[in-house]
Write a structure and sequence with these properties.
- 29% of the residues lie in helices and 19% in strands.
- It is α/β, with parallel strands linked by helices and 277 residues long.
- It has helices at 41-49, 105-117, 132-141, 160-170, 198-212, 217-225, 233-236, 244-253; strands at residues 16-20, 60-70, 74-76, 123-125, 149-155, 178-184, 258-266, 269-276.
- The chain contains eight helices and eight strands; from the N terminus they run βαββαβαβαβααααββ.
- Strands 5-2-6-1-8-7 form a six-stranded mixed beta sheet, with helices on both faces. Strands 3-4 form a two-stranded parallel sheet.
- β7 and β8 form a beta hairpin.
């Protein structure tokens, strides 16, 4: 697949994922390329091992990041996007990180067609760089940058049901060798850090995990759509852009089983990842 992915059928159905992308360039703070701060190492190890856990190697990745919002869900049709260093106050070398994967414009056309078939209007983008919700976790997952990637934006209205519907529309891609990834953080309150936050973050995480892993697909979707009724929801997410990539992954997961794929503690937050299928 040169720079994209058409509707070729795969031999396996790939799962969908909601992953944590960390904090800024957290995995690459050492200019010599050494290990990150110890608290980030379990998350880094999880991300580094993900591709090996899949039933087959993806032909392309479709990624929804918590750092790109547009009025309509928009596909990035760039052939090899630059990087957008959309973090602040980090060491100078972190503004020169590289992740030189190809874009997937042909996959973008397929995504737009699937959305249109579901009655979902979409937009296009070519000039924007890949934000750190893309290149930071992908640099850990795919250091060789050898799988093409298409980024899809969030809808700026942040409607959870709409994002689940987007995921459902894109589910056929799972049988076409495309790995659908939501990249965000299950807890994201930048003003709340440290050990005093941890008990509340754990309660939120337990409630979110129970909703996401509900064995009944209809109940699962309903509970996650109503995420803001869960304990400590607005403390965990004063604004929900880092949670909405989960909705896309859940929608694309359909009726498949859902499971907790990773959980760990960073800066006082309990942070989890989920897998569907």
């Amino acid at each position: 697949m040169a720079g994209g992915a058409g509707p070729d059928l795969s031999t396996m159905t790939l799962p969908t994922l909601f992953i944590p992308h960390g904090g800024g360039p957290c995995f690459f703070m050492d200019p010599a390329g050494g290990a990150p701060d110890p608290m980030w190492r379990p998350m880094q190890a999880y991300l580094a091992g993900l591709i090996a856990t899949l039933p087959e190697r993806p032909r392309a990745i479709l990624l929804v990041s918590g750092h790109w919002e547009t009025a309509l869900p928009s596909v990035h049709l760039g052939a090899q996007p630059a990087l957008l260093y959309d973090y602040y106050g980090f060491p100078e070398h972190t503004y020169h990180l590289r992740w030189d994967a190809l874009g997937a414009p042909e996959l973008g056309q397929r995504v737009a067609a699937l959305l249109a078939d579901a009655g979902i209007e979409s937009g296009e983008e070519e000039a924007r760089g890949w934000d750190h919700g893309v290149f930071v976790p992908m640099k850990v997952m795919l250091p060789a940058a050898d799988i093409p990637l298409l980024q899809l934006s969030l809808r700026a209205d942040l409607d959870p049901a709409a994002h689940i519907a987007i995921g459902r529309a894109l589910a056929p891609l799972r049988d076409e060798g495309v790995l659908i990834v939501g990249s965000g953080m299950s807890f994201h309150n930048l003003a709340a850090r440290g050990p005093a936050v941890t008990p509340v973050a754990r309660e939120w995480d337990a409630a979110l995990t129970a909703a996401v892993t509900d064995p009944d697909p209809a109940s699962r979707a309903a509970r996650v759509i109503a995420w803001d009724r869960l304990p400590h929801a607005r403390f965990a997410h004063p604004r929900e852009e880092h949670l909405l990539p989960l909705m896309v992954a859940l929608g694309a997961g359909g009726d498949d089983p859902a499971r907790l794929d990773f959980t760990g503690e960073v800066i006082g937050w309990q942070v989890s990842a989920y897998r569907f299928g």
